[in-house]
Here is the input.
Amino acid sequence: MSDDGLLQIQELLESAQASLKTATSMLRELTGVSDPLKERLVSRAVRPSLSAPVSGRMIEGIFDGQNMIDSAGQSYPVPANYASKSKLVEGDGMKLTITDEGKFIYKQIAPIDRRIAKGVLIQEDGQYKVLAEGKSFRVLLASVTFYRAEVGDQVTVLLPSVGEAKWAAIEAVLPKHLAEAAAREAISQGALEEDDGELTPVAEDAPAEEEEAPKKTRKKKAA
Here is the structure.
């Protein structure tokens, strides 16, 4: 590609970034908030200290489920493998150290209070999500591959104890034999019924077959 082509691409990118900033500014003026969730995370982020170490730059921020957001609203991509293995939860406080060599070192410094929820792994709009508590939460692809989870698996996820969240952290994948055992137990307790291999909830107002059979028998005797 020629230098003119590269220059044109750079100008287009700068123009797009300027337009995005202008649109964000207009939205903020009209509504007062451009992204409520991001604003909440930014407000919790700690501004960088003026006494940063000589050997590198240190930045503190809040994990948003995929990136770290600092007090200025700047985002820093957190390695997905690290986030998955560390089971970072949206809202966790983090510290980023940028060494003189340009190496990014992340560390979790203020874990948010979390709770565990059970759900099912689904795929929606080309993204992996967990359907739990009547909502769908995005999960990192690295977490799905790390736990070798498949669509339809029952999983447990970590969520913030307080407030709304868009992301969840996979805690564990329920082994298939345990999931099947739980389903069989639900069937035995009458919470589910099996129809051609599929499990469906039992309608509370559906008449039981045991109640219908005597009626049919009485009709035959009356005839």
